[in-house]
Design brief:
By secondary structure, this protein is α/β, with parallel strands linked by helices. This is Putative hydrolase of the HAD superfamily.
Amino acid sequence: MTLNIHSEKVFLSKPDAVIFDTDNTLYEYDPAHQKAMFAVNEKANKLLGVAPENFSKAYMEARDQVKKNLGNTASSHSRLLYFQRTLEILGLKTQLLMTLDLEQTYWRIFLGASKIFPGIQDFIQDLRAAGVRTAIVTDLTAQIQFRKIIYFGLDNYFDYVVTSEEAGADKPSKAPFEIALNKLQVAPEKCWMIGDSADADIGGAKNLNITTLQKRHAGVVIASGENTPDIVFDHFSELRALLHSKKWIPPVFDENHA
């Protein structure tokens, strides 16, 4: 697929800042999650004698209960809470050591199986070369999201990070976007939002009149209607090409041809 531009006018001038989502935008979420859950299921089977299908069913029920109880908050994504409630649903009561063990196993395998999308580092370096500020706006708690960013080697690529734990609410709430805009000291009309979620990323950014770019890959539902993104792209190299075509990137000085 190629770059799909739905609104040419918003790309007439260089953005002052670009905000990125994390999960399923900087890297592909599903393969890492599946490997992590496989490892957790194996451990539960080995240590607790719980059949994988029974553990998976209890986990999904636990996840739904936690999300219902906590609503649109960072802790509603907590694997620690999911595994605590999973064991309780299985009739094993609250087992603190086992809950911590399962959670640590999940994130260890998850991070090891996560790979950032090609071209993301080069794209961010292009933005910084062009004087464009960068930030992350991401759901989930700060500790694990900080760990992911550091694990990916991207901790020096962003000027600011805003988690839904800091904001008090997940996207598409305005709060995390507003905090990021305030940190970046940029008007929403001069900012881009790059993400994968039609509702959380694209819809949330559009609520503040931020230009939206949706990352397209397997499993992503492209936003439509009033949430139609300004750009849909498959590869970060396409965005790099856009920056260069607009001549927003300063030319590289070559001493050999000075």
